Amino acid sequence: MILQANCKINLGLDVLRRREDGFHDLETVMLPVRELFDVVEVRRRGDNELRFRQRGLTVDCPAEENVCVKAFRLMQRRYGVGGVEITLDKCVPFGAGLGGGSADATMVLRALNELFALRLSEDVLIERAAELGSDTAFFVRNSPQFCTGRGERMEPVELPLDGLRLVLVKPGEGVSTREAYAGVRPAVPERPLLERLQSPVATWRECVKNDFEPSVFARHPRLALIKEDLLKQGALYAAMSGSGSTLFGLFADERPYIPPFDGLFVHSEQL
Q1: Where are the strands (E) in the chain, listed by range?
Q2: Which of 136, 156, 176 lies at the terminal end of a domain, its last residue?
């Protein structure tokens, strides 16, 4: 079984408070990026063992720590699924704030659900995905969602994005989630995120923010320069996705984006 594991961006990210369990309550809207994806292939074996292979971009962790492997182990513990061979063709940058690993894990859950005829409902798949990460559950629905809690509680949302062009820009440096949270200052905004996102996109730069940006930009000043350059080149709105290090811009025209530095990963698609 072969599945495409597309990534996502965050439109606004408000970190509201730190919880007693060590996580943070947040509000964000996650939007699928349809044309940038990893390819996850899952095939049944005749035993109960897992064979995992990876191609493409390098992921900075041992194979046994890969989220695809963790997803299989979870389903084997919960439902006794048999052995499989998982091949991951990695195209989504790692440490980018795009949820590439989370998407991979969710596709493994989907594949195992089908290959072993588990007949798990969407709600149950969301519960299992949430055990693997805060944004993993989003990829079960894989449509625009208003996400709360630590990111695992979702409501469908409609946004005025038709006809816009999305440009992603990622430098070689990455930002770990731990680093991003270490510098964040939680606060509850005066206006809820969903209310602000109903405004015209061109007004978002004044009212829609990512709370990770101040501390991450202080440590990685080139990210701030990329955001500024996206706006200079005509983006209606630009921001960092998730905990970084990817920046994105929303454009109303078709002019090609010209990277300001060498060595940047750039992806563009129509929304």
Answers
A1: 2-18, 24-44, 50-56, 84-90, 145-148, 153-156, 165-170, 237-240, 247-251, 265-270
A2: 156
Sign of CA dihedral 151, 154, 155, 160: positive
Q: What domain count does the chain have?
A: 2
- The edge-to-edge listing of strands for the beta sheet with 165-170 is 237-240, 247-251, 165-170, 265-270
Question: Cα dihedral sign for 233, 265, 210, 102?
Answer: positive
Task: Write out residues in the chain with pLDDT < 70, as ranges.
Answer: none
Show which residues are catalytic.
8, 135
Single out the residue in 156, 189, 223 at which a domain terminates: 156
The residue segments making up the domain with residue 56 are 2-156
Q: What CA dihedral angle connects 203, 252, 26 and 6, to 10 degrees?
A: 180
**199 and 255 inside one domain:** yes
Tell me the CA distances in angstroms from 92 to 30, 70, 119, 164, 255, one per residue in order: 16, 19, 29, 22, 24
pLDDT in tens, 217-239: 999 999 999 999 999 999 999 99
- In the structure encoding, which two tokens stand for residue 8, read together? 């996502």
pLDDT mean across residues, the chain: 95
pLDDT of residue 73: 97
